[in-house]
Amino acid sequence: MKNLTNRKVRFTVNLTQILFVMASIFILNSCLEESPFPQTNFKDSSTGIVTDIDGNEYGTVTIGTQVWMTENLRTTKYRDGSAITSVTGTSQWGTLTTGAYCPVYNNSTNAKTYGHLYNWYAVTSSRNIAPTGWHVPTYAEWLTLWNYLGGDTLVGAQLKQTGTSHWVYPNAGATDIYNFNAVPSGFRKDDGLFYDLGYSTVMWTASEYPSLTTSAMCWALVYDARGLDDYNAPKNWGMSIRCIKDGASSGSPWKTMKSMPTARSNSGIAVYNNKIYVFGGIGTSGSPVANVEIFDPSTNTWTVSANMSVAKTPAAITVNNKIYVIGDGNIVQEYDPSLGTWLTKASMPTQRQPFVTVVNNKIYAIGGYNSITGSLSTNEEYTPATNTWATKAYMLTARNSTPVTAANNKVYAIGGEYSMNSPYNINQEYDPSTNTWATKASMPTARRAPAAITYNNKVYVIGGSNTVNVGTVEMYDPSLNSWTTKTPMPTARSYPVIALVNNKIYVIGGGNDSGCLTTVEEYNPSMEP
User: Fold this and answer.
1) Which residue among 91, 164, 243, 423 is least enclosed by CB atoms within 10 Å?
2) Residues paired with 120 in a beta bridge
3) Sign of CA dihedral 302, 303, 308, 310
4) 524 touches 506 (CB < 8 A)
């Protein structure tokens, strides 16, 4: 993800394009929060017109499953009727940490053509800046548009207003075939100055940038390119807002949740009482951490618990309301989340960093890596009821960074690698009842360190890396021995952890080119075909 502050603007500072799969996001749906004030109903008629609280009317257009405004927002009030602070002063603009707006170049006659510029604090105010029934789009919603328009370097040309009455020549490739009518309103930096009128437009999302809490995500169009590109920019900059209509049709099966307090990858994860427990992992320093943090999807909140006694990168799994934290060595600990207590249990026979799953109240620790042997095919079964380990049939292929999950009382070990930069697409099935392995249909995308989980007796493999980090989502149906590609995860990453709560899948943490992540993204498989 490139930072907009490093982008050269036409007057003082040439736009370096990036691919959306490099983005790392946290989607903050603050514009959808309930207002503390009474709300006014606004017109959203069949003629495609919506009216804001100031009485400004905006055209609308349907693109794919989404409905967008065809003009930039120009309201001076929040939905509840309270005023958005107007700031024209150069020195004051960059110091703000509350919502504010300004006309483009402080000239109110620009409003009808270009809309106003707003800082991100106005975008995410609980008072709501968009008319009722509308909101500021999340990064994922912009990504849905990007994908619908072809997901390539020509996307922006389909959105830009044609001609050079507002865009500077050559206004490369502009067709505006959907009447989206993107105009070059420029932006305002934290120095209080205005830049790029006629040369670019930058539109806020409602999504914070996870690796830098002073920045948020935005999308940009420029006069000399055909792309629609994503950036992060300081929250105190002034950008345009283009609203999208509420409703499932304007969304995605992906939704970003509250960021994890501690950025990390290679953690252990378990679910108890519909809450997600994350144990240890690799922190931003590159060393193991001992943090234990608990996520409640029902309230979208995190709680920090007492640290583990040792910093490590374990696996974790829940059996009979106890969480078993296993590996990064051979230590096994039982955690009782109802009491917050730890007990040391029988050591795992083989020291390693395995992946784990459970079948019939028995834990299977499979594959992994240690410094003596390297990648392993080891398969060891732990029975919590008797606190005993047994060695079982080894995997057919030794590998590490291989997630495992159980479906229909069988275990699936998918992907991974034996040596660096040689990812596998291998899919092998283990049957505990016969203690045998079988090779199944290969995963379409070879990758190391994805996350895998079972939902509705189907296996979802998400993220990972090959030559680059990916957001790929592929579903395996054991009953058909076949794969289906699903909507990609917004944040490409490897070594995340994954959990299922109330039929929603949560992908947490991991790492990509931005480093260790705090990102939490919720995936709703029921929204997929």
Assistant:
1) 91
2) none
3) positive
4) no
Among the listed residues 72, 254, 239, the one whose alpha carbon sits nearest the alpha carbon of residue 147: 254
Parallel, antiparallel or unpaired: strands 100-103 and 85-86: parallel
Neighbours of 122 (CB within 10 A): 26
Specify the length of the chain in residues.
529
| Token output for 64 | 């794919």
Q: Where are the domains of the chain?
A: 4-31+40-251, 255-527
- Per-residue DSSP letter, 509: -
So what's the architecture of 255-527 in CATH? Answer: 6 Propeller (2.120)
- Which residue in 446, 444, 479, 461 sits closest to 523, CA to CA? 461
Q: Which amino acid is at 410?
A: K
**Phi/psi at 5 (nearest 5 deg)?**
-65, -20
Task: Please name the residue that has the structure tokens 């909101």.
Answer: 135
* pLDDT one digit per residue (tens) for the chain, 529 residues: 455 655 444 333 222 232 222 233 222 232 222 222 222 223 333 347 899 999 999 999 988 878 999 999 999 999 999 999 999 999 999 999 999 999 999 999 999 999 999 999 999 999 999 999 999 998 888 988 887 888 777 889 999 999 999 999 999 999 999 999 999 999 999 999 999 999 999 999 999 887 678 999 999 999 999 999 989 999 999 999 999 998 744 457 888 889 999 999 999 999 999 999 999 999 999 999 999 999 999 998 999 999 999 999 999 999 999 999 999 999 999 999 999 999 999 999 999 999 999 999 999 999 999 989 999 999 999 999 999 999 999 999 999 999 999 999 999 999 999 988 799 999 999 999 999 999 999 999 999 999 999 999 999 999 999 988 898 999 999 999 999 998 888 888 999 999 999 999 999 999 998 899 999 999 999 888 7
pTM, entire model: 0.61
